[in-house]
Amino acid sequence: MSTTPSLVFRSPVSRSEVASPRVPAFDTELLRAYMKKLLQATLQHAVWPRDRDQVKSWMKDIKERVKDRMLEIQPSGFKYVVLVQINENLNQGGRADMVSHWEDGDACIHELFYNDSIICTCIALAIRSSS
Predict the structure, then answer these.
(1) 108: how many CB neighbours lie within 10 A of its CB?
(2) What is the SS3 assignment for 27?
(3) What is the pLDDT of residues 33-68, one digit of tens each?
């Protein structure tokens, strides 16, 4: 009788199981409140412009201010990514989703703003840096 060695498959060690220096968790609620107020203040009276430069200006202002606020909240230990998308509101449906593989301390904060003319999605990622 021949025996076949059984194969054992293991999941790779996740980044959260690997020892790393303790960096405080990123304060997501503080940033979420800031993003909500910022989008409201910046876009509450916004109307979809014929000039594309106005949309670029809104997006640049929002992403820079969110990134700066992230650096104020946690100046080191994280890498930051801010994504801003502004579309004309034509009563269309929409959906956004994300999947990630990262440490428990990493964070994704998202905020949506819309009025009769525009829809703005802002996503901020705080990714724990290894150095």
Answers:
(1) 14
(2) coil
(3) 999 999 999 999 999 999 999 999 999 999 999 999
Distance CA 117, CA 90 (A): 7
Amino acid at 110: H
List the structure tokens of 110: 């998202």
Its pTM stands at 0.79
Q: How far apart are CA 86 and CA 112, in angstroms?
A: 10
> Long-range CB contacts (< 8 A, 24+ apart) of 67-73?
67/124, 69/31, 69/34, 70/26, 70/31, 70/124, 70/126, 73/26, 73/27, 73/30, 73/31
Burial status of residue 78 (CB atoms within 10 A of its CB: 0-12, 13-18, 19 or more): buried
CA distance 69 to 63: 10
